[in-house]
Amino acid sequence: MYVAGYGCCKQEILASVGPVYDISRFGISFVSYPEDADVLVFQGFYNGKGLRKVINVYNQMVQPKKVIALGKCALESLSYAESEKNDMLYEFKKRIKVDVYVPGCPPRPEAFIYSILRLIEKP
Fold it and tell me: Closest Cα partner for 107 from 57, 65, 58, 73?
């Protein structure tokens, strides 16, 4: 699993690795390189340049690949600039198919873990 993005959702994702939630008990681990990942966790806010980087990360991932969009920024706005919001979200959804959406600002670690387990169940 590779986590991309900036913002407060990343702290909730990292909390899932700790001893309280221990996401590794499900056989889930985080990687540092997109080439080693089969799941992309897309979260936080972006500008156009950051969005292009995430699309490049997605293209570097191995097949089959899945995407989780996590948090309010990734689901609704992606950007602080009002004029860029709709264009960037449209561009992202046009290039990358999101498999699971996790709402919240930020979503709790339990919601994140639940979304991964749902993703594993999908064919």
Answer: 73
Q: Is 78 helix (H, G, I), strand (E, B) or coil?
A: coil
88's CB contacts (< 8 A; 6+ apart) are 46, 48, 51, 78, 79
**Is 60 exceeded by the pLDDT of residue 6?**
yes
Handedness of CA 106, 10, 56, 31 (dihedral sign): negative
pLDDT digits (tens, 9 = 90+) for 22-76: 999 998 999 999 999 999 998 877 777 778 888 889 999 989 999 998 888 777 7
Which class for 37: exposed (0-12), middle (13-18), buried (19 or more C-beta within 10 A)?
Answer: buried
Q: Which fold has domain 2-115?
A: Rossmann fold (3.40.50)
